[in-house]
Amino acid sequence: MYNNKAFPLSLLTLALMGLQPFSVSAKDDTKSIEVQTSSSAAASANDQQITKDEARKPSEDVKEHIEVTGTRLQHGNLVSKPTIITAQEIKERGVTSVEELIRTLPQNLATIGGLANTRARGPLGASDGNVRAMSSIGALGVSAANLGGMGAGRTLILINGRRMAGAAGIEDGFVNLNGIPLSAVERVEITTDGASAVYGADAMGGVINFILKSGYNGTSVTVQHEDSNNGADNSRLSLYSGYGWTSGNISVTLDYSKRDPIINAKTGYVTNNYAPYFNDDPYYDNRSFLAGGQPAFIDNSVSIYDPDTGTSHTLTQAYTVPQGFTGQPTMDDMIMVDGSARRDFVPKVAGPKSETKSITLSFEQRLTEHLVMTGNGLFSRAESSQDQIESSGLKLNLAPGQAYNPFPEYALNSWSPGVTAAYYPADELASGVLPYGYSENTADNWSVNLGLTYEINDETKLDFIYTTSQASTSGTRYGYDSIVSINRDSTSDTGWSCYNFNLAQGRYTGAELAFYQDLFNRQCTALTSSDPNIAFNPWKSSADGSGGSIDDFYYLHADEDRGSRLENYELRLNGALYELPAGKIYYAVGGEYNDDGVDSNEVKVKTGESVHRTREGYFAELSIPVFGKKFNYPLMKSLTLSLAARRDKYNTEGAIGTVDGVNIDLGGEILYGTNTFARTTPSYGFNWQPTEDITLRAKWSEGFKAPPYTDLFDVRGTSTYTTIIANDPLYDCRAHNDCDVDYGGSYYGYNAPQLTAPNPDLKPETSKQSSYTLSWYPSGVLAGLTLDITYNDTKIKNEYAQVADLIRMAPQAEVYQLEQYYPRDENGKITAMRNMTFNLSGSEYSSVMYELGYYINTAFGSFEPKITYLDNLKSEQKTFADSEVVSSLGYLQGVDDYKINGSFRYNYGDLVATMWVYYTPSYLNDYEVIRSAGNVTNPTYIKKVSSMITYDLTLSYQLTKDLHLNFAGRNILDEQPPFVVVGGLPFDSARYNTAGRTLSLEVQYDF
């Protein structure tokens, strides 16, 4: 698929091998490592129980590697304060997948995952039949994190501190969360303060680092079953086993899980008529005669003008035959039915049925006194399937004279000689004569990290790390459909003929051509034959009716392979430079080489072939203790400065056209262009403790994201059409007497060429982040109280925009003044409309998060209440510098005004009980909003959505030394989602867990 093994000589000369990008030796200086968990510091100090996993850690003299997110410094970076979710807290949250875990974070906006993937206006925009959009095969089983609502591609996902290949074939580069087995996760670290100075691109919104389990002696088997009152039951079996010896250890996890789709009727999805929700607008009554019936419908709805009101309305009606009719109909047999006869069919199930298998492996081996070999790997395979066609009908264009078409030619309109009957094969599906249409795929995700660490001394280490990762998806889509239309044809004896656009235009070759030509011929015969035994009969009321077989209309619609891959080499040196009175100056320096790419139909339709980019990066970090230890003063208990910088150079090559414009499908030779840019991203901050109880952290950083392949390249090259420049505010064609159109009044204009072309000169999006955290952990009487207040602000510039984006966000007169899109000659006349992507837009996101906790230890057990309040201050976009701000704060497609999560944990002996509360405030549904010239043209369709609160309860009990029981109830009060229409569904799947109330029991046995 890809082949680019080039590696800079400067790195090769340094290569030694190593792993664990944030490895820290636990042997020395462990007191200087600050561990911040999502539980209170006081709880950690007072709970002295040793967990079974900790007791089973290898006791031999093997140095433990500790992953620290957001830095390559071996003892961490005190400037950042990550949120850490331990394996125990994961169990206490009651979640059964990584996707569910990330959805519990108040910072996350779940725009990708589950039913949200079916939204036409969602980030994936999956649409079968549109070659430029992702297919249902590609979207099936994909889930992503989206911290701060900035977009999934701006949240960096790491496994053990290393990058992983993005979701298969998706150029945005985000990692598919469903490729990470939850049972293999030891802990999760989340930072939201920007980390491009450490990791490079894609970390504008934050970093989520999944640390896999390792270093374990023994075996643990876990069995879990979850029952969903909406049908989405889930079962899981996992094994975790490890062994340690004097100089190393090895551990492995195996996991198997199976999940069912939801049952629509149990979610409240019972109708497709949403007109009452949208002011009785019939446009939102999704019932349609085209959904078919048995017998079929021929839609004959007409628009009727009312001269008294000056308005029009639609008379909804259709032709059909009486139920139970047999034989060949005549016009006398046809009856007219009104809109009440439309099939209001809700599919039985929604979402995929999935089965997932995974394995992870981790090992560490000391080879010599100074040399340590480490490695870890992950592989997961998910097989998913999803019904596709239950709500659609088979649309059959019957030719004049076909055995079951009683209508004369051009009976219903002047452009089609035949009539279109919509047939729904209900009895064929129910009896098994015809299988349901479906999409299915097999998604493989794997990642391997290997290498060696050379310990020069107790403080200095040289690491070389090799990472390779790949995500691939193979799938098919089956369904019933007709590829034949009956078109006017003056060369035919009948005056019409069967037609298919792709066949007529020579879009198929080889085996694909043979397949579609045969399918076309068979369907054409069924739609044109006058023989009642051969012609298809859409008027039958059951599968046993007369006519030809429906099998000719059920076929393989798509067979797709897609993938993403990544290969990375990193060399780094870290250690201590010098010891100051306040402590040691720690450093990390190094470089890396990265090669990643994607391969999918929606990418290749523009780029012509799979694409990849290479990156060379060089980085340095410093941690400088100014005050601390015994060197401190009043209000200066400690002060540590942090400095980091990174230099990245990107190189991407792709198609910008073909020689002489010959289509690539016809053998055209590709012309290539190159996009190259370099970016330096600095970061600096401090950790200041004026007293023992108070800590203030501040961090300022910059970030970037590389341009998308499909904006940089296009195998079609430059296409030129003619467009009208209407009402140009800077050039009056009337005054210059050179208007090409002038209808009088306020509409006039002139012609200009419209150039549609790739832009290989695009620059990366850039960002500036600032983060401030105030922590108060008092001692004395208030010991056990914890308070953290964190402010984050991210400003993004040079976002990508096209003309179509601009005219939705700003008046056309303002857009005309942007010369990158509308260049002008010396007289001020526009010389072309450049329908290209440029760096133009900007956005800003800011928030304040308050975390308050309290730990109380009594003779009756320990109590730990905690509340998190996230106040989103800004989520807004500006099309260009002087344009109006458009805010998505408090709207369905943006982040909520605020989020509140609360928990109450009780621990007594072997029992742990935790109650969780999740509150989502009311927001505005803008999914159907239409924007033009910066204004909303249908403001009455912005609907308020009610707030929602759900409660989860988990119980954990150590029954015996080796047996552990866990119970979890999510949404235990079975709170129903507020009614909101989004993409044809009556609920917001991004904010509501469609599984409804779930109850699960987990049994864990250790030996």
Please describe what this structure looks like.
The model is unreliable at 1-55 and 57-64 (pLDDT under 50). This protein has a 22-stranded antiparallel beta barrel. The protein has a 5-stranded mixed beta sheet with strand order 1-4-5-2-3. The two termini are 44 Å apart. With 1007 residues, it is mainly beta. The protein is globular, with a radius of gyration of 31 Å.
**Largest sheet, strands/sense/barrel:** 22 strands, antiparallel, barrel
**Uncertain runs with pLDDT below 50, 5 residues or more?**
1-55, 57-64
Mean pLDDT: 89
Strand portion: 35-45%
Distance between the termini: 44 Å
What's the alpha carbon Rg, rounded to whole Å? 31 Å
Count of helical stretches:
15
Gross morphology: globular
State the helicity in percent bands.
under 10%
Structural class: mainly beta
Number of strands: 48
Summarize it:
With 1007 residues, the protein is mostly beta strands. It starts with 8 loop residues before the first helix and ends with a strand. 45% of the residues are buried.
Ordered list of secondary-structure elements with their pairings:
Elements: H1 9-12, H2 41-46, H3 52-55, E1 83-86, H4 87-93, H5 98-103, H6 136-139, E2 155-159, E3 162-163, E4 185-191, H7 196-199, E5 206-212, E6 218-228, E7 234-245, E8 248-259, E9 262-263, H8 264-267, E10 298-299, E11 302-306, E12 311-315, E13 317-320, E14 335-338, E15 349-350, E16 353-366, E17 371-387, E18 394-398, E19 419-423, H9 426-431, E20 438-455, E21 461-480, E22 485-488, E23 496-499, H10 501-504, H11 510-528, E24 554-580, E25 583-599, H12 601-607, E26 611-627, E27 638-658, E28 670-689, E29 694-705, H13 709-712, E30 719-726, E31 741-742, E32 748-756, E33 765-776, E34 785-801, H14 803-809, H15 812-815, E35 833-835, E36 838-854, E37 856-858, E38 861-878, E39 885-887, E40 898-908, E41 911-920, E42 923-925, E43 931-932, E44 935-936, E45 943-945, E46 948-958, E47 963-970, E48 998-1006
